[in-house]
Design goal:
mainly beta, Methylamine Dehydrogenase, Chain H, 4-stranded antiparallel sheet, globular
């Protein structure tokens, strides 16, 4: 895979047939995940595209851009269905609810917006962070939305009563919280510029453990489908694979990356993919390379 520009984010379709990448050239790239062939370059954004994600039902994908918008796309036709306007500054993150009916976005205006996917209408705005929101994720049971911010906190929003949303503020990181990610079993992981990953119980806000091992900023995290492995990339060539309890063992994966900006598991958990500042996407570890058919 080669895009020619900085790869900011990548995402697999639920059926593992499509890989999305988004770049600083204002485009979203659509790849055949089994062949490595470039299928489409999607234009429309007027600024660098910073994040992309598929909906769990595979019908949609969303892209977030420095142009202050979120674009919602039809996964089958790659048609842009909605341009979501509501942020006043660049949008850093988007995430879908497990039922694919809601979309959350967050960015440099310090707010998260909850959208209705079907209509593109705003459901509510979530206010409280003191600096830019850089990451977001829904819990597997749809009860919670987690947001990570440059204010060094993680905020967990209880979505069960939308008319009166409560939140927990998770403190402890000593730097920008660059990524948050729920495990399939419901644990919450947060990665930071303080070189640590923290694992939380979202219902109570209790810190369960702190993972050390990264040598520089944690850039991206992803859980395997079984929840037993977590990959994390940092602002260097390093990708770390963490095996979850009871061992909490760490393994450093060999890469050929300049800087491992992003990482993602395929939905079946057999392949780990990382994207880099040298514009390329690489398959790692547990399965055949992406260019080889399965």
């Amino acid at each position: 895979f080669f895009s020619g520009y900085l790869v900011n984010s990548c995402a697999f379709s639920p059926d593992t047939r499509i890989l999305l990448t988004c770049c600083d050239d204002n485009k979203v790239y659509v790849w055949g995940a089994q062949t490595g062939n470039l299928l489409r370059k999607l234009k429309g954004h007027k600024g660098p595209v910073l994040f992309c994600r598929f909906s769990p039902n595979g019908r949609f994908f969303a892209s977030a851009s420095r142009d202050c918008t979120v674009r919602l796309w039809d996964a089958q036709t790659t048609e842009c269905l909605q341009v979501l306007r509501g942020h006043s500054r660049g949008v850093e993150t988007v995430s879908f609810s497990p039922d694919s009916k809601q979309l959350a976005s967050g960015g440099w205006d310090r707010k998260a917006i909850l959208w209705e996917v079907q209509t593109g209408q705003t459901i509510t705005q979530l206010l409280g962070h003191r600096d830019a929101i850089q990451s977001s994720d829904f819990s597997p049971n749809s009860k919670y939305l987690a947001t990570g911010s440059w204010d060094s906190t993680v905020q967990v929003w209880d979505l069960r009563t939308l008319d009166k949303i409560k939140k927990k503020i998770l403190e402890g990181h000593k730097g920008n919280v660059s990524c948050v990610c729920f495990s399939p079993s419901g644990f919450l992981a947060s990665g930071s510029w303080d070189k640590t990953i923290r694992i939380w119980k979202p219902e109570t806000g209790k810190l369960l453990t702190k993972l050390l091992g990264h040598l520089t900023w944690v850039k991206s995290m992803a859980f395997s489908a079984d929840g037993l492995r977590m990959a994390s990339s940092e602002y260097s060539e390093m990708v770390i694979l963490t095996i979850f309890p009871p061992s909490w063992s760490l393994a450093t994966l060999p890469t050929v990356l300049e800087v491992a900006h992003v990482c993602a598991f395929t939905p079946d958990g057999k392949l780990l993919v990382s994207g880099s500042a040298d514009h390329q996407i690489f398959g790692e570890g547990t399965a055949d390379p992406l260019a080889q058919p399965t």
